[in-house]
Structures are given as structure tokens and as C-alpha cells.
Amino acid sequence: MPKGIYKRTKPPWDKGHKTVHSFTCQTCKQKFFSKRTKAKFCKRSCIRTDTQFKKGQKPLHPIPKRNIPWNKGSRELIKKICPTCKKEFSFVLTGKGSKSRHQKFCSRACIRNKTQFKKGSVARLGIQHSEATKRKLSEFVKKRIAGGKHNFVKGHQFGFKKGLIPWNKDKDFGGVGYLSKRISWLTLYRKWRLSVKKKDGFKCIKCKNANNLNVDHYPVSLAELIRKYKIKKPQEAKKHREFWNVKNGRTLCVLCHKQTPTYGKSFV
């Protein structure tokens, strides 16, 4: 068999490549290139301006004459009287996402004046009542319970029972955290921190700032106390009074606390 008959040849250099043609856009009159053999416009905006928005041009999907839209006249006008300002207001129900039929107030200001600033509102939660007010509220609730006008389930007990100790109270879950940090999670530490702030009048002892306050062990640091009494678990610190001495604490703001040599350094 002669050589070279079945020899593989290289594919042509332009195999799989389309030739690029040059055109001129009918709208913006700019030159552009495309792989298509026929093209009139360079981009979609030029297509819209030349077809849909051209003066005297018919729309692509025209509305037939004497055609009544399905939603014409279906909007419902509702009139109501605002319970706060006693003024009449109206709104239109246009469909999904519109104002509700059960709207009561004409504006947000009227909603706030009627609900948030109303006596006995939920927004007053956290405000401390006087002893006389607490007595009145207690008597009122007792009367409702006696008359059967309440929402309490029979036999249900609220909160903790007297003398019951929660399973996770002051419990140390261990972990890889520093010992000083785990001591700060104790309930006794939180009470000590609050008493130190009360002693200093809830102000920084250096700059008298009342925002972003921290409590620091001083003059004897927490790390020195842990080394002194050889503490290995947070519960062991409860036995020693020097940890919870109010005189061994000071109130500092964050900026003044950062200037101390022990800030951010957990030695234990």
C-alpha cells in the first residue's frame, strides 16, 4: 500500500469559526459587528426606539377599539372615621398588596397616640410601678380570677416553685475558654459587678463617663487571686470572700480600661 494515502491531515484554520460582518445601525447610525448575516440594530434600546416608540408607529400589541378592561370600575372606595382624631378618611382597595379593608386609623401618628401612649399598653412593659399601683393591679387580677374572667389554665404554675434550684444555675460547662472568663459567667460575679457600679455611682472613676462601663478587679487583679487560691474551677471561687470584695473593684469606661496594662490579656 502506498504511503501517504491514509495520512491524517490537520483541520483547516477557520473550522468552527464564524466570519464577522459589519453593519450600520438604522437608529443611531453607528457601525457595529455581528456574526449574523443580517442585522439592523446594534442593541435592544435601538430596536425599541425605532419600532415601539417611533412617532406614528403602531404598537406591537394594540388594544382593540371598544374594549373594556376587566378591572375598570372595580376599585372600591371605603370611608371610615379615625378613632383618634375623629376625622373622616377614605382609601381605595386596588387589589393584592393594597390597604386592608379593616384599617382603623388614618395615619401612623394616630396609631401611636391610640396604642403606644395609651395607659395600660404593652409598650409600658419594663416601667417600674409604685407600690400603690402594684396593689391595685393585684386586687384587679384577683377579682377577675374569682369571677372566672381569666385566661389561666387550671393547675398551671407560673415561674419557678419556691425553693426549686434550676439545673443549670451557676453550672460550669467547661470548654476551652479561660478560667477568668468562666468565672465572669457566675451569678455571684454579676451581683458583685452591679454592687461595684453602685459604689462608683455608675460612672467612670477617671473621666466620669456614664456610657460603656466595665468593672475591673483593682488593686488585686483577678488573675492574681486565681493564682493565690489555686482555683481550677469557677465554683471554687465562691468560697473565697476576696473575689467578691466591693472595695477590690473599680468602674472604668472602655477607653480608660484599654489604657490599663491588663486589658485584653487573659493570664489565666
Quick description:
With 268 residues, the chain is an alpha+beta fold. The chain has helices at residues 44-51, 108-114, 131-146, 179-183, 187-199, 222-229, 254-258, and strands at 21-24, 31-34, 76-81, 88-93, 213-217, 249-253.
Explain what this protein looks like in three dimensions:
With 268 residues, this protein is an alpha+beta fold. Among the domains are: 21-51, no CATH class; 76-111, no CATH class; 179-258, no CATH class. It has 7 helices and 6 strands; from the N terminus they run E-E-H-E-E-H-H-H-H-E-H-E-H. The strands form 3 sheets. A two-stranded antiparallel sheet has the order 1-2. A two-stranded antiparallel sheet has the order 3-4. A two-stranded antiparallel sheet has the order 5-6. The longest helix has 16 residues, at 131-146. It is flat, with a radius of gyration of 40 Å. The model has no long low-confidence stretch (mean pLDDT 78).
Features:
single chain, 268 residues, alpha+beta, two-stranded antiparallel sheet, 7 helices, 6 strands, flat
Return residue spans where pLDDT drops below 50 for at least 5 consecutive residues.
none
- Based on DSSP secondary structure assignment, what is the total number of beta strands? 6
> Quick check: average pLDDT?
78
The biggest sheet amounts to: 2 strands, antiparallel
Number of helices: 7
Q: Mind sketching the topology for me?
A:
Layout: E1 21-24, E2 31-34, H1 44-51, E3 76-81, E4 88-93, H2 108-114, H3 131-146, H4 179-183, H5 187-199, E5 213-217, H6 222-229, E6 249-253, H7 254-258
Antiparallel strand pairs: 1-2, 3-4, 5-6
